[in-house]
Amino acid sequence: MKELLVSVVVRWAVAAVVGSAFANIGCSAAPPAPRVELGDQRPIVADESLVHALDTRLETRLVDQLELDSFLKDRDIHVKVADGVVAITGEVWTPLEKERVGELVRRVAGVVDVSNELDVHQPR
């Protein structure tokens, strides 16, 4: 009985030391970054080519996401991105698949809005 009590006390002591160490090390949120004033600096890119380059990357991530889905990879789905707005066209077999495509697209970082224009047709 005495050994059991010693074991429990040792466990609690170790847990208290570990918890105290984490609290002292600073396992909380990092302090906010200092605010940087840009003044009269010009942007790196004068036109919006950078925005469209990011849209191309977003489009690639969206296509990858749809191809990874085992139910949707064989469907005729096309995506186009303009300023974070995704237009989905093509054909799926059921209304549930259409809804699933919209949900998958909305979850991808960088998507601002979704226009789901998929047609629902039974397989031939």
Question: What does the model show?
Answer:
- The protein has 124 residues and is of the alpha/beta class.
- The chain has a domain at 49-120: Histidine-containing Protein, Chain: A, CATH 3.30.1340.
- The protein has three helices and four strands.
- The protein has helices spanning 2-25, 49-68, 95-107; strands spanning 76-82, 85-92, 113-116, 119-120.
- Strands 1, 2, 3 and 4 form a four-stranded mixed β-sheet that branches.
Distinctive features:
124 residues, alpha/beta, Histidine-containing Protein, Chain: A, 4-stranded mixed β-sheet, 4 strands, 46% helix, elongated
Mind sketching the topology for me?
Elements: H1 2-25, H2 49-68, E1 76-82, E2 85-92, H3 95-107, E3 113-116, E4 119-120
Parallel strand pairs: 2-3, 2-4
Antiparallel strand pairs: 1-2
Per DSSP E runs of 2 or more residues, the count of β-strands stands at 4
Supply the CATH architecture of the domain at 49-120: 2-Layer Sandwich
With helices defined by DSSP (H or I, 4 residues minimum), what is the helix count?
3
Helix content: 40-55%
Coarse shape: elongated
CATH fold call of the domain at 49-120: Histidine-containing Protein, Chain: A
> What is the CATH top level name of the domain at 49-120?
Alpha Beta
Mean pLDDT: 78
Beta-strand content bin: 15-25%
- Report how far the terminal alpha carbons are from each other: 74 Å
What Rg, in angstroms, do the CA atoms define?
Answer: 26 Å
Low-confidence stretches: 44-49
Biggest beta-sheet profile: 4 strands, mixed
Return the structural class: alpha/beta
Order of helices and strands: HHEEHEE
